[in-house]
């Protein structure tokens, strides 16, 4: 059953940006939680071979950003791109050999991140222009006034299997539960910007760092316990946040695979159900089958 929302009162804006190049530092090395220096690929550019449903951890990478890393070269237009782009929005390549190819936003980091088919990604180059049909900010759930929606395309709600349960709570399928102690970098920031890095998925490092999150996948829907992301990001007992893993493996201490925020509110407002199918790969397939465009 389709959730009652204010989707008919939302507007769509066409935002523009470009595929931003990967950036390096002249000092090269960073140091992981065990004191080991490393130089690895990660943020920016076009990242091939990693898509929704693939493992989030275990790569020779740091701050892995799947697909396209998109920003605007001017600061204020870039903030509009960051704040207004929502997970599930359609992204179109506007220049270069892949012009006309379409994908979808899978989250935010330092950039807006978008997934495309592998054969299309391989044709994209840094500097290629893209557009985002941005819609979803200020989306409200009419029957769930305590739940604040963030960064979510209107059609994605149904594709993720959200519904109102018999007891009136919001039923949300998730692939994993994340304990509050796993929350690292990103706490204290606006929940419309970037994401929340999760500690405890440091594959190949000291075992005492593990919080059992090494099995997370790119684009998994997860629940963050005791996290309030309604008006920022912070620890608050009795509150629950639902997000989507938008970035992958990190070696830098305090960082890790990170969810972009989708929903936040009092824990009692949610009926969280574990479901291994709770991943954007399945939601996007459902949207494609419906011919959805937002």
UniProtKB/TrEMBL annotation:
InterPro entries xrefs: DUF4438_C, DUF4438_N, TM_1086_sf, TM_1086_SG_dom
Protein name: DUF4438 domain-containing protein
One Pfam family cited in the UniProt record for this chain: DUF4438_C
Domain of life: Bacteria
Residue intervals of the DUF4438 domain: 29-158, 164-282
Source species of the chain: Jatrophihabitans lederbergiae
Signal peptide: none
